[in-house]
Design goal:
The complex is a heterodimer of chains A (about 220) and B (about 800). Chain A has about 220 residues and is an alpha/beta fold. Helix content of chain A is about 20%, strand content about 30%. In chain A, helix 2 packs parallel to helix 4. Chain B has a seven-stranded parallel β-sheet, sandwiched between helices. A six-stranded parallel β-sheet of chain B has the order 8-13-12-9-11-10, sandwiched between helices. A six-stranded mixed β-sheet of chain B has the order 25-21-22-24-23-26, with helices on one face. In chain B, helix 25 packs across helix 27. The chains are: A alpha/beta (about 220), B alpha/beta (about 800). Chains A and B meet through strand 1, helix 1, helix 2, strand 12 and strand 14 of A and strand 19, helix 26 and helix 30 of B. Chain B: Pfam families: DEAD, DEAD_assoc, Helicase_C, WHD_Lhr.
Chain lengths: ~220, ~800
């Protein structure tokens, strides 16, 4: 498959079909909104008992990317767990799996709105993180710095009759799609998203065909 | 034992100059029956017949609390019945309180009804299921004596009926002497409906009212013959308009909403004298529909173009003609539609059929004969669906702790679930309690828990509220509201399916509510449009129901084709049949006709399976897969109720191996799994079974990104646990619904390998119309991905950016 490379604020970045973002120069992998433990949280609150394979699926995807890229730095861009208790109740097998993925890497947990409390997991726990021209945080700030990379909104675009998670990028900021298995999406036309992006912003689809299209048309 | 009619009733009847119909009298005489089914044509005073015993029993004022529960499939019908009952009750001064309770009833009113129920409560299956979920249900229903189920023939065909019967099983536990009364339109097999409604294994008594005079029904004669292919019946507009002129009020039924819209559009263009004509279908907004209904009741409309949305319900009064456009597909539904004309007892209903194309002439003729011979078609529904069972286990848990043995015993008194095995029940209970997954992940958070004493109960009693909010089996398809732009929150024009909305680009025009509108954009999940004065709209393809013709009707057509001549058919159609017989074969019931021929530079294969549209469509998918494997390079196919036409690059040499049962079965297994039909079916079943919640206690708006598509759950289960209960249910449902593989199997059984493969030099008379059919399905592999890429490139270009390297952005 052709690799898609975009030049963003002086950094050369690769949005991956999986929804992860790869910065080869810094050997940095960034994923947003894993929402681990979502099924468990729903069950705890008396909702439907969803298929309990969501952590395995999300960790599996992350494993695949790490295996393929061998990053030195991994940034989880917030909402890595669906809530505080969900982080505590990760099964032993999944804890071990995660520990294996983290071993030998600089692992950064950015706080999200779902999981603001300090986590019991190892790795660095930060509100935001700056590296070179890029700054990483969970929610985009209205007047945030140039080179801001964030998650939170789970953008999705529809094109050719299908609806897929997508990256959004303009000259100043980039918003990542949700990487977690049990995550939904927000339409690009939603004012919360549309208001953040410049009019010439583009959407880059996840999935086998990494189509690039103007955000206003999607 | 019968319920005698007090003298005051006789006086009231004679004061109105009425006589009690024989079937109304019979209902009184059989009032003590534990299960009683009345089959009567529309307009036979059926509803009054149902209520008379209740009114008589209540007339002495001695009964305290709820006596009779009336259930109808339509909210509007409940309100209508309340009005109708108030006349006899008021005029006779009976001490009877009647109230209705539907989704539209206020919360205060509903609360009062539970504390102090009326004598007669009119409600819907969903509202009843909700009522039975409250802790005070035992008190409310303790004295219940009769339950009347109106339009039971319609309910019996859907999960709403299964839900209702499970609720009745609960009511019979609460009120063991409860009598059940069903009111049905004319059906093929009253015994089957009786078995569904009676408390198993109680017998059911069936009363057949005088069916009244035979309907006056014929094919509409037109100057131009119908076209070779397609639907819609546009060619017949002048003749239809002439009929509208000659009658007081005409109902013009269509099989799909899109066809109704298109027909209405053209009817209106041809309606030079401006006859008042309206349109009514399920995609229109409630306001729009209510406006048309009101105009209809006041007799202000000369015609209504409509769909199944008018199949049931309110007495429209002055309808004196029903026109069915397009083959009726189903004789039973045709008879019920015809009954909409002349809602008066003992007056023949008048109806005209308008075949939309040549093949439908044959089908219409077959349907006419079936109506005359009272040969109605019915499809057995099979065992009760387990997703509904799961919902009722949760409903039972809302009431309070329960014994699983008791619940199993209660549920198996419901006809559809009489054959339910204990294992199957236990699997459903386990699903409700733990999710039923191989990975036992929810030990701490089970939804239902078994207490040390063995009783089952909700782990968290607050879950009851969530369960109650999601009661019901009706599925909203994914539709988006359509509004006029710049009418700040103005009332919607109607709804279109999400997939249709996704296919629109700015400037496209389509029909909705009889007007042409221009698509401007999607805003906040609303389709924004402006009015547009175009002549030719882009076709509105929002689906509505797509019916497949019934097995019985197909059999009649096959029988007709075997006649030596067809004196009842128009000359052009007879000639067409003769020509087919000369150049190829006419299809036969116990053989499968397969034609192959070159046409227009492509090789074609035509398979006359007569299995109904859905099954023929599935057959097309399975056969093209096989042909792909065999290197025949199929490129696409198209299906109708009768046949599937496949085109490709290589000629078919040997048809027989394609139709081996195992081959088709195997193809089905692999193809089904990734299919969109399966995902849609899964969503419906997962919602009914309580896995997915449609309604949440906190406002949904707060986190739109939090709700995710059920497709994700389907994909996850397919990958990790393909044999999970919900996947089993999904497979069952799809096979009897949209995939309709059962009818392919039926066809294979019927044919038993007698395949007539005829190789011809050119297209045959029967195959030719198929070349003109719409709805061609391309055979895709990587096609979908290519479509996405091309569409994106087009959008980039349109935006003036060009499909250039995205890196140039910086």
């Amino acid at each position: 498959m052709n690799k898609l490379t975009i030049s963003f604020c002086g950094a050369s970045l690769e949005p991956r079909p999986s929804g992860a973002l790869w910065w080869p120069e810094a050997r940095l992998l960034c994923v947003a909104d894993l929402h681990l433990g979502k099924a468990e949280r729903m069950a705890r609150r008396g909702g439907g008992l969803l298929p309990p394979y969501e952590c395995a699926e999300t960790l599996g995807r992350l494993d695949t990317e790490i295996e393929a890229l061998s990053p030195e730095v991994v940034i989880c861009l917030g909402d890595s767990f669906d809530d505080g208790p969900a982080a505590e109740s990760l099964s032993e097998a999944h804890c071990l799996w995660l520990a294996r993925l983290m071993a030998g890497r600089d692992w950064i947990w950015i706080a999200g709105n779902h999981d603001p409390a300090p986590l019991s997991l190892s790795g660095r726990h930060l509100g935001e993180f700056v590296l070179g021209p890029l700054s990483f945080r969970h929610i985009a700030q209205a007047d945030g710095p140039t080179g801001e990379i964030s998650g939170h909104f789970h953008p999705k675009a529809r094109v050719g009759g299908v609806r897929r998670p997508c990256f959004l990028v303009d000259r100043r900021r980039m918003i990542l799609p949700a990487f977690g298995a049990y995550t939904g999406g927000m339409d690009l036309s939603a004012p919360e998203i549309a208001g953040l992006m410049q009019s010439n912003a583009r959407a880059i689809l996840t999935g086998a065909t990494q189509a690039v299209l103007p955000m206003i048309a999607a | 034992m019968s319920t005698p009619l007090p003298p005051i009733f006789h006086e009231w009847f004679s004061s109105r100059g009425w006589q009690i119909h024989p079937h109304q009298q019979a209902m009184l005489e059989h009032a003590a029956a534990p299960a009683l089914l009345l089959v009567a044509p529309t307009g036979g005073g059926k509803t009054l017949a149902g209520f008379l015993p209740s009114l008589a029993e209540l007339s002495n004022g001695e009964h305290e609390g709820l006596h009779t529960l009336y259930i109808s499939p339509l909210k509007a019908l409940a309100a209508d019945i309340k009005r109708n009952l108030s006349t006899p009750i008021g005029e006779m001064g009976l001490p009877i309180r009647v109230e209705d309770r539907t989704g539209d009833t206020s919360a205060t009113r509903k609360k009062c009804q539970r504390a102090d129920p009326p004598h007669i409560l009119l409600t819907t299956p969903e509202s009843l299921a909700l009522l039975t979920s409250y802790e005070d249900a035992p008190r409310m229903f303790a004295g219940l004596s009769r339950v009347i189920i109106d339009e039971i023939h319609a309910l019996a065909e859907s999960k709403r009926g299964d839900q209702l019967m499970l609720s009745l099983a609960r009511l019979s536990t609460l009120a063991p002497r409860l009598r059940r009364v069903g009111l049905s339109a004319t059906v093929d097999d009253p015994q089957a409906i009786g078995a569904l409604m009676a408390r198993h294994p109680d017998p059911v008594e069936i009363l057949q009212a005088d069916p009244g005079p035979a309907p006056d029904i014929a094919m509409l004669e037109t100057e131009t013959p119908p076209p070779w292919a397609g639907g819609g019946g546009r060619y017949a507009i002048p003749a239809v308009l002439e009929q509208v002129r000659q009658h007081r009020t005409t109902l013009i039924f269509h099989n799909t909403r899109a066809q109704a819209e298109i027909f209405f559009h053209h009817l209106w263009l041809a309606n030079e004298e401006g006859l008042p004509i309206g349109i009514h279908h399920g995609s229109l907004s409630r306001e729009q529909r209510e406006k048309v209904e009101a105009a209809m009741v006041e007799g202000r409309l000369r015609a209504i173009v409509c769909t199944g949305s008018l199949d049931l319900g309110i007495d429209w009064g002055d309808v004196d003609l029903v026109i069915q456009v397009g083959a009726p597909k189903n004789v039973k539904r045709l008879v019920q539609r015809i009954g909409r004309a002349n809602h008066r007892y003992n007056a023949p209903s008048k109806a005209l059929l308008v075949p939309a194309n040549r093949f439908e002439i044959i089908e219409c003729q077959a349907a006419l004969e079936a109506v005359r011979e009272h040969d109605l078609d019915g499809a057995p529904r099979g065992a009760g669906p387990r997703d509904v069972l799961c919902q009722h286990i949760l409903i039972a848990a809302c009431v309070g702790p329960f014994w699983s043995d008791d619940l199993f015993a209660e549920m198996t008194t419901s006809g559809a679930y009489a054959g339910l095995s204990r294992d199957a029940f236990d699997a459903c209970l386990d699903f409700c309690a733990t999710g039923g997954y191989a990975l036992r992940a929810y030990d701490r958070w089970q939804r239902l828990k078994q207490r040390p004493d063995g009783l089952w109960q909700l782990r968290d009693p607050r879950a009851a509220q969530r369960i109650r909010m999601n009661i019901g089996t009706i599925q909203d398809t994914d539709t988006l509201k359509v509004r006029l732009r710049n009418r700040g929150g103005g009332k919607p024009l109607g709804e279109v399916e999400e997939a249709f909305a996704a296919s629109l680009t700015q400037g496209d025009t389509f029909l909705i509510g009889g007007q042409i509108v221009r698509y401007e954009g999607l805003r906040e999940m609303t389709v924004e449009v402006t009015r547009h004065a175009a002549q030719k709209p882009k076709v509105a393809v929002f689906a509505g129901t797509k019916f497949a013709s019934t097995t019985r009707l197909m059999d009649r057509i096959l029988a007709m084709l075997q006649q030596p001549d067809w004196p009842d058919l128009p000359a052009h159609t007879r000639d067409w049949l003769r020509l087919q017989s000369e150049l190829s074969h006419l299809p036969q019931r116990n053989r499968l006709l397969v034609e192959s021929f070159p046409h227009d530079g492509r090789e074609h294969v035509c398979v006359y399976g007569f299995a109904g549209k859905n099954a023929q469509q599935t057959l097309g998918l399975l056969l093209t897969r096989r042909m792909e494997d065999a290197g025949l390079h199929p490129l696409g196919f198209v299906s109708t109720d009768y046949a599937t036409l496949i085109w490709g690059l290589e000629p078919l040499r040997d048809a027989a191996p394609l139709f081996a049962r195992e081959t088709l079965q195997e193809g089905l297994e692999t193809w089904l799994a990734g299919n969109a039909v399966m995902k849609r079916t899964f969503r419906a079943s997962a919602t009914i079974a309580g896995l997915i919640e449609r309604n949440m206690p906190s406002a949904r708006k707060s986190g739109r990104q939090a709700t995710f598509s059920s497709d994700i759950l389907y994909d996850t289960l397919l990958k990790y646990e393909p044999d999970h209960l919900l996947m089993q249910i999904t497979r069952e449902e799809a096979l009897r619904g949209l995939v309709d593989f059962g009818r392919i199997e039926e066809m294979i059984d019927r044919v038993e390998g007698r395949i007539d493969h005829i190789r011809l030099e050119r297209v045959t008379p029967f195959a030719a119309p198929l070349l003109l059919e719409v709805g061609k399905v391309p055979v895709v592999g990587a096609g979908r991905e290519r479509l996405v890429a091309e569409e994106a490139a087009r959008l980039m270009e349109a935006a003036g950016i060009g499909a250039a390297d995205p890196g140039s952005l910086a």
